[in-house]
Amino acid sequence: MSVPEVIWRVQGVVRDRMDRALCARRAEPVDLTGVMKTRTPEKLTDGRMFGSQFDQLPGPHCPAAWRQIAATEADGIARRVLTIFDLHDCELGDPIRWNYEHKADRATPVGFAGEIDYRDYRVTGDCKFVWEPNRHHQLVTLGRAFRYTGDEHYARAVVDQLESWMEQCPFGTGMNWRSPLELGIRLINWVWALELIRPSAALTGDRLSRIVGVAYRHLWDITRKYSRFSSANNHLIGEAAGVYIGSSYFSALKSADAWRSEAKALLEREIVAQTHPDGGSREQALGYQLFVTQFFLLCGLAGRQQGDDFSAAYWSRLEALFGYLATMMDGGEVSPLYGDCDDGYVLTLGSSLGQPRALMAVGASLFLRGEFKALAGEWCEPGAWLLGEVGRTAYESIPAGDGRRPWVSRAMADSGYYVLRAGKDDAADRMNIVFDCGELGYGAIAAHGHADALSFTLRIGGRDVFVDPGTYDYFTYGEWRNYFRSTRAHNTVTVDGLDQSELLGSFLWGRRAEARCLRWAPSDDGGLVSGEQNGYTRLSDPVVHRRTIEMSGRCGEIVITDEFDASEDHDFAFRLHCGEHCLVERGGDDQFAVDYGGGRVTVAVDPRLSFELAMGSDEPNAGWVSRGYHRREPCTTLIGRCRHRGRLTLRTVVTMTTESCRRGRRADGVL
Q1: 3-class DSSP string for 370-406
Q2: CATH topology of domain 56-225
Q3: What pTM value is reported for the model?
């Protein structure tokens, strides 16, 4: 840790001690006279950042389904029922229990926020289950339903839930004042919800004044606690976005101009600092790229609408972020979600703004990119809320099929990911490999990286064959948190049972594997990529791992060659994690057949490896894939082991066949 970071952290400790002493006084309602430029009710908020698109919905181009779905979802929210990750139709209580971990069914601490250890499950339960309903995405859904229907019931529910929250969560106390990122996300959702219900009689001047006072506390607290140094990852982006949106909307606050200017400068800096020139996130976590893209997009649009546009460099890098996501899309999905992904998103505007098709539709309209439109398909509800009729017109002006990306191999060399492709983008036998030659993660702690250097994923015809198993958990199950980040949870090779990089904590790495690309030779039929990683050079007998992947679409063949430079004896374990829907058949000592639902591949493995199949195993952890936070399903994992002295070369050949397996799967995942 650097000296400046040590000083910053010491200052934070001193600040927290002062905050604790003043907590009770600051929890009192804010006297707006001292913090506002004006007390005129109609000037408490500033809706310029929204333009006129809210007044255009519902309109002639608004499908009835948008209104129906919003009303149905809002009805459940008004009844205080919510889905939180794998916790479906959770009853939040009447009144809603905001200081509560609903999955663990336990109250959370309500003392001074700075002293709550949110990472200790014994203290708080899983903090994500506490924070998710307190981000208040659901208030925006209620607001959208009000705009669609004019039903005051939805607007009253917004105000009632806000007042309930303010009563139970006084400033500086409890989990909901613990993380500045959570304050930032909540503030963005408050701004959207308030503007959506602005025409309602439920939002009286007195009620709005109370909300503005608490919004002021959000802004004031975030700006004192911006994440810095090793903590300055996606958290800093979300914090700055919350302040930019909040200070733009509550512009009558005396400090709003200064806060907005500081937040804008941070966003301008971080969009460059935290992303590669090719548009990939430096966190090496695709789920977090989807997350921060939303923050950057919302702030860029807000600035443009209110005459405070961001720089050309900002918009150029934002377009690159969209372009990177487009490269990673296959069959309407972004795949693989390498690195951490906790299902975080910023706004729900019909669908989560983090859904790839919705983002591509907005990106197509903004940047007039035909390839984005081809990936998006139809115009979407989030686009209508963000860009209005002007956005839809721009989207429709892009000719059908214009700029459609050819299905070709691509190098995202800055980020360290290489995509081998063969076939046509709409063909059932198109092949798609993503190969990881990138760094572990961002900054000093690489918090959201996985030990997955030289791993790869394979999709055929838009279906998963070999997968990245995902994230699953952060705080509840320490053993599973470590497993899903480990080298053995990825499609690569472990040496002596160790991870490539040293795992020191749930969001902390020690010595890191360094990976680099040695050769990139794309072709119109796939091509070749080769890389190496040095994570095992820390051993007393250093080992260097090189991997080469060759794809031939015409032959329907993929060859994986693993080479290890070593002198002494080592234990090697080669793994392939199949998609959860795959059926696996052992076809002899050195062959396996994998039915992926749209066809079959044959995997010819190196005869020096002794193979076993794992599926849904808890002892040891193996054979699992997670598609969302606290959601996991059994999958079949091929594990080949050998002990070898000196240099070693392993060869694996994956061949596509047209025959499909249609027999049933046994409990162990074998046909």
Answers
A1: HHHHHHHCCCCHHHHHHHHHHHHHHHHHCCCCCCCCC
A2: Glycosyltransferase (1.50.10)
A3: 0.96
